[in-house]
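Our preliminary data section would be incomplete without showing what the modeling component actually yields. Below, a chain of 178 amino acids is followed by its predicted structure, encoded as tokens that our downstream tools consume directly.
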Amino acid sequence: MLERYYQELLRLISRSTGCRDKAQDVVQEAYARLLARKPLGDAPTLQGGARALHGDTPPDSGQRALLYVTAKNIAIDEQRLRQRRPHDALDEPHLQLRAPRADEPEQRLHDRQTMERLLAIIEALPPRCRQAFALYKFDGLSQIEIAAQMGISVNMVEKHIINGMLACKKGLPERDTL
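Predicted structure:
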């Protein structure tokens, strides 16, 4: 019976739960409950226990119906439980919230060290290059505004900015580049 109804029941419960993994758990639980069930009068059972599940004895429609109803009821029970305790869904590993990486102590130390390295590199630039680079990167001035303020050509401002960027890139490890 397992091979005969498993895929069909799994598809049905997957549509109901919206998750194939949860559906597999529900179907497995349904089979386990029916195997463990003791016969009650004329109620349908899985005759032959495990043998009936593996197809050695022909299952009747009552057994199939009992299997489907049991699986559907388990799925409904689990859905009700999730609705009553919605915060428990956060316990699922794929839904756990992590602090942003920037808040982790190792990342903060790394960022501070990178910033100190960059400031040292910028301080080591020639004065005019440092001034043009700082006005562009930190003050947000355009190249034309920098050229007017420094009394140099826009082309020279571009060269200073490029030299500053190259110095910063050269001074940082590959993954920390700007």
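The two ends are 62 Å apart (CA to CA). Confidence is low (pLDDT under 50) at residues 44-58. Preliminary results of this kind motivate Aim 1 of the renewal.
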